[in-house]
């Protein structure tokens, strides 16, 4: 889900992830999907005498998705409310986890936030409730992002395989005849456009550290090693050569003013996208929907965007990476976990909801029933002037994605990386020093939270 990719990063850090806090919620009531029926539902309940499962989610088309589910089920009904997007919802959920009451039965979480709640025993393993029955519907990477060993903590819905969006008019004006296939070609094109007096080729925004992290992983970095079966120990490695190379690469382009350093998802940034201020946008499969909703691709910018595979650090060893993606998890406070699991696994999994999701560009669906459908594969994307972006770019990227290992303190990590990117853009540090300082900060923090750093 698109907008929250930034909201969950730049919001104030809200953490309760020390090992002393790992007691979780238990079965002490929560919203009470059957013990006390929730009544503050945004949607209509179709079967009044059926158990109700309280769901927190922010997808724009949730009203339609919930109605689809409720109309198809007589044994359970969804009571949906929007508790906020991204960090707003996470803060409320964390408060409920800490208080051991007030949580929903099912909560929408981005993939990189799952471990932080899993470590608090705030989420339920769905494998006893049929999760593995639907495993075949998802790629290896999508499933890995919601799993820990043989345990499954959420049902994947939306993903963000990354690619390179570019302005065809800017490329044509400055003689860029094809999109760069490698980051070396990207840097050469950025220098060429700058020398000709053109706009920034892209940007190194501090408020999207998830993008930088993805490119670090693409280069071969493994920022974290963590297994929920061994809560005490964590591996942290962000001062490796791959991370240093990535930070130095973008800092160099920024210092030479070949790219910008503006925050993304702001009014000014969107205006720049409309006006051709940036030649490229390194983003994910949900971006066309976000940009269209923000007014990009209409009026003077209509028909001027195309998409290409994400440039590679090593063309001989391509790596697919992901930005964003969200899933439905069952909380430990759900009193009827079987009913809640039926909702988590079945909500946004029916054909009508998935079709509405991708056609309205609300989600990039992870369900293989969509990814393998002729209609989705051959869809001509209006934002890309009729390009078959799903078939040519996004589906191959999603199917090649192998998943990632996230830390149990993602928000803190993102805040520290964001601070280093600000310094890099200001010329106040180098990529090598930024990586070392980031390593030291994360190790110190992890130890203060009770972890043993391997």
Automatic annotation (TrEMBL):
InterPro entries: Bact_solute-bd_prot1, SBP. Keywords: Signal. It holds the Pfam family SBP_bac_1. Residues 1-26 form the signal peptide. PROSITE patterns: PROKAR_LIPOPROTEIN (PS51257). The keyword Signal applies. SUPFAM superfamilies: Periplasmic binding protein-like II. This is Sugar ABC transporter substrate-binding protein. It comes from Paractinoplanes tereljensis.
């Amino acid at each position: 889900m698109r907008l929250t990719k930034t909201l969950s990063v730049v919001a104030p850090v809200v953490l309760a992830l020390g090992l002393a806090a790992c007691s979780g919620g238990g079965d002490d009531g929560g919203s009470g999907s059957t013990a006390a029926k929730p009544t503050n539902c945004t949607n209509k309940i179709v079967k009044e005498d059926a158990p109700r499962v309280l769901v927190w989610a922010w997808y724009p088309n949730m009203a339609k998705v919930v109605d689809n589910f409720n109309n198809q089920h007589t044994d359970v009904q969804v009571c949906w409310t929007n508790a906020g997007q991204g960090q707003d919802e996470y803060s409320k959920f964390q408060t409920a986890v800490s208080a051991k009451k007030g949580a929903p039965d099912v909560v929408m979480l981005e993939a990189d936030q799952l471990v932080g709640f899993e470590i608090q025993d705030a989420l339920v393993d769905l494998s006893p409730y049929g999760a593995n029955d639907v495993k075949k519907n998802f790629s290896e990477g999508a499933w890995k992002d919601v799993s820990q060993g043989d345990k499954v903590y959420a049902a994947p819905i939306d993903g963000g395989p990354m690619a390179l969006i570019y302005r065809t008019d800017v490329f044509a004006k400055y003689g860029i005849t094809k999109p760069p296939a490698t980051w070396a070609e990207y840097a050469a094109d950025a220098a060429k456009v700058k020398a000709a007096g053109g706009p920034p080729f892209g940007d190194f925004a501090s408020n999207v550290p998830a993008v930088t992290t993805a490119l670090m992983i693409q280069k071969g970095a493994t920022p974290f090693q963590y297994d929920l079966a061994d809560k005490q120990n964590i591996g942290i490695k962000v001062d490796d050569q791959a991370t240093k190379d990535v930070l130095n690469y973008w800092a160099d382009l920024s210092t030479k003013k070949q790219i910008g350093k503006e925050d993304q998802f702001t009014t000014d940034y969107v205006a720049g996208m409309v006006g051709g201020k940036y030649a490229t946008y390194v983003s994910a499969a949900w971006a066309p929907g976000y940009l269209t909703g923000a007014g990009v691709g209409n009026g003077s910018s209509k028909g001027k965007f195309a998409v290409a595979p994400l440039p590679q650090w090593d063309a001989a060893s391509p790596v697919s990476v992901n930005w964003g993606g969200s899933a439905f998890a069952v909380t430990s406070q759900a009193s009827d976990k079987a009913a809640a699991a039926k909702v988590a696994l079945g909500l946004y999994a029916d054909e009508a909801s998935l079709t509405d999701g991708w056609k309205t560009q609300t989600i990039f669906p992870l369900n293989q029933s969509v990814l393998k459908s002729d209609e989705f594969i051959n869809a001509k994307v209006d934002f890309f002037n009729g390009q078959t972006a799903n078939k040519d770019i996004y589906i191959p990227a999603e199917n090649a994605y192998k998943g990632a290992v996230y830390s149990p303190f993602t928000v803190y990590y993102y805040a520290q990386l964001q601070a280093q990117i600000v310094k890099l853009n200001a010329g106040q540090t180098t990529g090598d020093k930024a990586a070392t300082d980031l390593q030291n900060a994360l190790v110190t923090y992890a130890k203060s939270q009770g972890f043993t750093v391997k």
